[in-house]
Amino acid sequence: MLTVNQLSCDYPQQPLSFTLSVAAGERIVVLGPSGAGKSTLLNLIAGFIPATQGEVWIAEQNVTSLAPAKRPLSMLFQENNLFTHLSVRQNLALGLSPAMRLSPSQKEKLQALAERTGLLPLMDRLPAQLSGGQRQRVALTRCLLRDQPLLLLDEPFSALDPALRQEMLVLTQELCRENRLTLVMVSHQFSDARFLADRCILIDQGKLAWSGTWQQLEKGDIDAAKVLGIRRTNDQ
């Protein structure tokens, strides 16, 4: 589904170069210390940061020169990027049409997914009238409405309290399975990898330092806690 080949960009702190492959339907959690290049990797894949060399392939298509809106992916940030003057319904509609003019089938799809994610009682509210967890649920639902095969999550739940964060992780796992999505999620939490990941990727000093299962990581295949500063305790 995703191939990143010697992808790099101008980065003042350190040289960055990434090479990795993600299979269709695979769920990857990207771990590593602050400043290692995790968010930069996602922004390079999404096209928000231009690559100085290398390639990005998604679903057998070279998307390296495509604008972010043209790439077959959806990306969710820690800041949910909802439009504050639009209702939940209108924010969701943007996932289907920039003009928010929906066909009957699109309206049906929006309604069904809003019900699945528990948003139906909130459809006429503005973002300011929602809790942090509710806003992230709206943002995640909007990503899913775009019906793209690749979902990129950049620490979207780190600002939530532990109970809400766990709720969002469960919802993400269920929706990825149901929609057969390929997931790449940046996190500082080892517990996220334990819950979500088919595979973990460790980024350190602008490059891929290690790749394997969370079980291998937990058993000490690499001392991630010391080398990369990952929090391995229970959701600290």
TrEMBL record:
It holds the Pfam family ABC_tran. Gene3D superfamilies: P-loop containing nucleotide triphosphate hydrolases. Residues 2-230 form the ABC transporter domain. Keywords: ATP-binding, Cell inner membrane, Cell membrane, Membrane, Nucleotide-binding, Translocase, Transport. GO terms for molecular function: ATP binding. PROSITE patterns: ABC_TRANSPORTER_2. The keyword Transport applies. Belongs to the ABC transporter superfamily. Drug exporter-2 (TC 3.A.1.117) family. PANTHER family: SPERMIDINE/PUTRESCINE IMPORT ATP-BINDING PROTEIN POTA, THIAMINE IMPORT ATP-BINDING PROTEIN THIQ. This is Thiamine ABC transporter ATP-binding protein ThiQ. The lineage of its organism: Bacteria, Pseudomonadati, Pseudomonadota, Gammaproteobacteria, Enterobacterales.
